[in-house]
Structure formats: structure tokens, C-alpha cells
Amino acid sequence: MKKISIIAPCYNEKDNIQIFYEKIKKIFENDLKNYSLELIIVDNNSTDGSIDILKNISKSDKDLKIILNKMNYGLWKSTFNAINYAKGDALIPMLPIDMQDPPELIVDFIKEWENGFEVVYGIKKERNENFFLKSSRNIYYKLVSKISDIDIPPYVGEFQLIDKKIYKELLNFDDYYPYTRGLISTLSTNKIGINYTWQKRTKGKSKMNLFKMFDVGINGIISFSNFPIRIFSIFGFILAIGSFLYMFIPIFTYFFLPERNVGAGISTIIVAIFFFSGVQLLFLGIVGEYIAAIHRQVRKPKKNVIVKELINCDKDQD
pLDDT per residue over 73-87, tens digit each? Predict the structure, then answer.
């Protein structure tokens, strides 16, 4: 019997834990009878009683694995670290307990995986949220897809099902701030997407504020693209060339249109300011290119997440 591993991040989700757990179990009991479930819930040091609920459930279900982190490391670091404990034939690297990504889609994911696809990803084509957030996210997804050095499909998050050989390869990345969807995209072209609607949260409060969204967005942009740095290089180059060409205007007016000639020295100052500003931006961009190259090499601390307690699980040594 093939095993499906699911990693579910949790932080102060006491109102959703039991509902989420029962829904996942029901899906596997009714629609996925021929598969076994390995549910790994990773808690980021909850303070609302979520940990007690998880421990109570784990006493009667040894297939529920719980990772209790020492502090809140955020969604991406904690779920990426949890991959170390997965032993399934396929893995869903992130399925939040708030159920805004519908767990029922797992059935369709598995069908496509059994058809031979190594990666089956969910496409958040529709979102049940306000116009501003929906528009902002759409612009961001399209931007990342366009400027990335790799093929990251638009509207795709971490809600995916990936084959065991893919998630084992993921563990070779030692990234301080793993952009998981981007890392997965580098590992396989044998993939397919399934459209779905991202649901509204019905219980509890979202932990994703504007600052965290901005932080995640910037990480997604810089992780697989040097485009922002190159903008400054290009802009600096254009500004320097433009100021150089502008130098010919006062020369022309001096000889041919003396009545329009500005005060002595003013043109020289204008040209000098813009020229050297352009040169500075150009060189800043070049330096940035080298920093970006170094950046890709050094984002590898030895330990991103410190685990406080493990329940029903141990680290996979395969």
C-alpha cells in the first residue's frame, strides 16, 4: 500500500485542528482507501492551546506525527524542515490547517501522480477574498513567473503533490529561507496543474499580515532572479548616456542660439550631476550582480529550525 505524506503547518489554530484532522482522515477512509496516510503537523510554538489538542489526538492515532518547534520559524522554514521526517511515496509539502487550500483536491492530485506525473500542483486561479488582495496577488504571481530564471507557473503555491524522488532531492538544498515552490520547479519538468478556488478562512484569524506578505514576496523575487538588480544597472547606463548626449545641447546653443544660452557653468553642473549619478547607479548595479552571485552561495546555515519535541516520528535516514 502506497503512503501519502502531508505536512501541515500550525500556529495558534485551536479552532481548526480537530476539523482539519477529521476531514483528512475521512478523505483517506472514503476516497483513498488504497493509500495509507502519514500526517505530519508542525507547530510553530503555539500559545493558544493548540499543542495540547495535538498531543491528545496523537495518543489515539500513531499515524499522526507532530513536530513541536522551539519558536515560530514561519511557514516556509518549518514545513521545509518537516520534509526530513516524511517517509511517504509522495508528499504534499504544505497544506495549512486553515483549509483555505481544499484538502479534497488531494484525490485529484493522487490520480495525476498515478498517471505518471512527478509533480502535481494546485493553481489558485480563483480566490474568495477582497478585490485589493486578489489583484495584488495576481500581479505578484505574474511578475514572479515572468522574471524568474526558472519556470514557476503563475498562481501556484506550495499546495502540491510531489513524488518521493523529488522531495528527497529537495533535501539537498540548504537554504536559509527556502522558496519551496521555486525549488520544486528546478527539479522536474514532468508536471501538471489542477485549477481550484482558494477558500475564505472560516475559523480563527490569519497570521499573514501585510509585512509578512511583503517579506515572502521579496524572497520569491530575489530567490530565482537577478532582474531587480539589473534594473538599476540598465537605468544607470541610460542615465549616463542621456547626460552625455545632453552635453551637446549647450554646445549647440552656445554657437547657434546664443540668445537661449543659460548662465555660464549651469549646464556643466547639470550634466555632471546626471552623468555621475548614472555612473554610480551603473557601478552599484554591477556590484549588486556580484552580491547576488555570492548571495546564492552563502544562504546555507547549518540549522534553520530547532525542534523542541517530536511525537510519533523520527528523522528519515533513507
Answer: 888 889 999 999 999
C-alpha gyration radius of the chain = 26
> Is-contact 41 67, C-beta < 8 A?
yes
- C-alpha neighbours within 13 Å on the C-beta side of residue 317: 1
Residue 222, classed as helix, strand or coil, is: helix
Buried b (16+ CB within 10 A) or exposed e, 36-49: ebbbbbbbbbbeee
Give CA separation, 46 vs 11, 54, 98, 254, in Å: 5, 11, 14, 73
290's enclosing H/E stretch is helix 266-298
**For residues 110 and 90, is the Cβ–Cβ distance under 8 A?**
yes
pTM, to two decimals: 0.76
Q: Any residues with CB less than 8 A from the CB of 167 and at least 6 apart, and which? A: 83, 86, 91, 93
CB count in 10 Å sphere of residue 155: 20
Q: In whole angstroms, give the CA distance from residue 234 to residue 238.
A: 6
- pLDDT digits 0-9 by tens, 102-156: 999 999 999 999 999 999 999 987 776 666 666 776 777 677 767 666 677 778 8
**Stated length of the chain:** 318
Q: What is the DSSP string of 59-109?
A: HH-TTEEEEEESS---HHHHHHHHGGG--SSEEES---TT-SS-TTHHHHH
Residue 242, all three cell numbers: 542621456
In whole angstroms, what is the distance from residue 67 CA to residue 314 CA?
A: 10
Cα(147)–Cα(57) distance, rounded to whole angstroms? 44
